[in-house]
Amino acid sequence: MSKTSPTAFPVYSLSISGLLSLQLHALNNEGNEGNQSLTRRYYILQKGMSEPEYVNGVSGDMFKHIQSEHLHRICLEASLPLSEGGRRLNPDRIGYDIEQNLPIFTEQETDLATKTAKILQCCTISDLEGFMVTEKRGQTLKRESAIEFGAVVGLPTFVKTQSYFHAKYGVKEPTPYNVQISSGLYASVLNIEAFRIGYNPHTFKYAINTAQRKKRLDALLKSVLYTYLQPNGAKRNTHLPHPDHFEGAIAVSTRRCPAPMISPLQVESYERQIAAIAQTLNTLNGVGTIYLFPFRDMAEFAEQIQMLIEQAQPWESENAEANE
User: Fold this and answer.
1) Does position 177 have pLDDT exceeding 80, yes or no?
2) CB neighbours of 76 closer than 8 A, spacing ≥ 6?
3) What pTM was computed for the model?
4) Does residue 119 contact residue 162 with C-beta atoms inside 8 Å?
5) Residues 34-52: tens digit of each pLDDT
6) Which of 17, 136, 144, 181 is the most buried (most CB within 10 A)?
7) 8 Å CB contact between 119 and 208
8) How far is CA 15 from CA 61, 76, 146, in A?
9) Which of 319, 318, 255 minimizes the C-alpha distance to 290?
10) In the chain, what's the furthest Cα-to-Cα distance?
11) What is the distance between the terminal CA atoms of the chain, rounded to a whole angstrom?
12) How far, in Å, CA of 174 to CA of 295, rounded?
């Protein structure tokens, strides 16, 4: 499945299709019913099923929150530019600065294109994670995220959730409660539109230079690695997850073409399908359109991310794309 890649190549888009094993976790709860915590569940309906399966999962929102926390630490460590909201890890990011009337724009910077460029220049997290904020009596400033997560969803028949009795001890009588703990194999998918890093859709140009875009691409890739190495979430003080396996494929496109992504819910065929699609796209668009980086465990995944950081370069175009 592996394809030889050059020592350096541009990245238009990147996808990860992986089968993740998480043991004894309670990362994503939907609330409580009495003294019972309720874990997040999804209905899965696949070809050949007579009825939907109800399986445990972790929302894409949760995984993106995990990734953005890791990205925040990486940005601080690497001294990448952050707005005050980004530095505080405020969920509004640049919106915090605007709400607090911090000096972001000059009196001459009034149009959408100029303001968007200024935001992209001053806040790495807003650039990579996306932003949308409406100024008081002003304009709505927005740009889509460069990274997208799907729900991390358990494979039917390969995931199990059980309820365990606990007691919270205090000064008075112990308080009994039940916690739902899950173990199993989970399908995980994500997509990175790397061409979007630093891109201003109002001017069809990049607001930051190539060197800065490379630093942000590296930070984003590193944050993805950290997300799978340390999937933060609920109940970790006493139910720290056991992430014991991760396999799949990283696909990279170097031209205006989506990197192929097939859900590992198709556990028997997803890798074969990704490889076949990559071959087809290379035939249609030219050799080197798609590169594949397969991995068989978490250690190989880390090695492939390291290789991408060493070799991947920002995708350049005078007219990348405009969709806003």
Assistant:
1) no
2) 82, 87
3) 0.91
4) no
5) 667 778 899 998 888 888 9
6) 17
7) no
8) 17, 26, 12
9) 255
10) 71
11) 37
12) 47
